[in-house]
Design brief:
Blueprint (H helix, E strand, L loop, with lengths): L4 H9 L7 E5 L4 H11 L8 H15 L5 E4 L5 H4 L7 E5 L22 H6 L4 E7 L6 H20 L4 E6 L11 H18 L8 E4 L22 H14 L4 E4 L5 H14 L5 E4 L1 H4 L3 H7 L1 H22 L6 H5 L8
Parallel strand pairs: 1-2, 1-8, 2-3, 3-4, 4-5, 5-6, 6-7, 7-8
Length: about 350
């Protein structure tokens, strides 16, 4: 299904002049609150909504001049959205805070006061949903998730706003997603999700995906930790195979890794020749600013972001130079880009 004219306009607002999505992500809620609390040495409930908005506003203000768009959340991010640079489009999250979801089946839920229409009315160019997904989970669990995504896809189609689906893999048996064993399973988890949600019934416009490997376990990578799950040649082949499975434009998410690991992963994607269309990169650019904010406040955070945060996002921007325009994979004519 080709993108409608209304969705193409929004996608153009989210892209740079090359048709690549070079977006920053600042929609973390529960995980950010816990991280600030930990750095402050206080209880989580002592991190106020005002502090959350203050942190998000600083990140938005300093980083969006270097991004094509910013992803925020409706709970704390609406005021921050006003601080974004005029060149940056806006995505808003629709789901309840999810990165700390470890319940059986990891079923998603929506923010009760939000709809795709409201997200559009708030001036956003896209709806984003985070979904924990494993093709190896119970079929009934995945059927609930499939229906959930079908409903959101239909809602976005009705209101002519692009639907970005972010899926994060996990081990249904409770294994360590950062460990060696999951690293070996990860390619099949990522590819299974990319194949499933490329199907037309979901109405997904952009797949926001994890890289199909863990660079810590790629022999010879710049961030190799000494345990091998794949050779570099095998890793590059996995990048290619995952790209071939995707029938929709796809972008990579940083999934909480540090900047060096994310940039190395993007370098492998480029070396493999994948046709990915950019990134939505959050914590890899700003997470090291959390303890600075927690101990020294917003001005110190802005100063850090203006130096190291900008260096981090520019390193990502340099790494995605080989990315391909989203409209090619979407099967639409090249739109007029700013």
């Amino acid at each position: 299904m080709s993108l409608s004219e209304g969705k193409v306009r929004h996608m153009t607002a989210l892209s740079n002049k090359n048709g690549v999505i070079a977006a920053a992500a600042m929609d973390q809620r529960g995980s950010l609150q816990k991280a600030i609390a930990s750095a402050k040495g206080v209880a989580t409930d002592q991190v106020t909504p005002q502090m959350m908005t203050e942190f998000k506003t600083a990140v938005t203000k300093v980083l969006t001049p270097h991004a094509s768009a910013i992803l925020l959340d409706p709970e704390f991010g609406i005021p921050a959205a006003k601080a974004r640079s005029s060149n940056a489009g806006l995505l808003l999250a629709y789901e309840e805070s999810g990165y700390d979801n470890t319940k059986p089946g990891r079923l998603p839920d929506l923010l009760p006061h939000v709809s795709a229409k409201r997200i559009k009315d708030w001036g956003a160019n896209a709806v984003k949903i985070l979904l924990y997904y494993s093709p190896f989970d119970d079929a009934q669990v995945n059927d609930i998730k499939h229906a959930f995504i079908e409903r959101i896809g239909a809602e976005c189609e009705t209101h002519q706003i692009p639907f970005f689906l972010e899926f994060v893999g996990y081990d249904p048996k409770g294994g360590d997603e950062k460990g060696l064993e999951f690293a070996k399973q990860k390619p099949q988890v990522v590819m299974g999700a990319m194949e499933e949600f490329s199907k037309p019934q979901y109405g997904v416009d952009v797949l926001k995906v994890e890289v199909p490997i863990n660079a810590h376990f790629v022999e010879g990578s710049s961030v190799y930790k000494g345990q091998k799950a794949y050779t570099r040649k095998e890793a590059l082949d996995l990048f290619r195979r995952a790209a071939e499975v995707a029938k929709k434009p796809f972008i990579y998410l940083s999934a909480g890794v540090d900047n060096a690991q994310f940039v190395e992963s993007l370098n492998m994607a480029a070396e493999a020749g994948t046709d990915y269309s950019g990134v939505l990169c959050g914590r890899a650019t700003w997470k090291d600013g959390i303890p600075i904010y927690a101990t020294k406040g917003a001005k110190a955070l802005e100063d850090w972001l203006s130096n190291q945060g900008v260096k981090n996002i520019e390193a990502v921007n340099a790494a995605i130079t080989p990315a391909k325009p989203w409209y090619r994979k979407a099967g639409v004519a090249q739109p007029a880009l700013a």
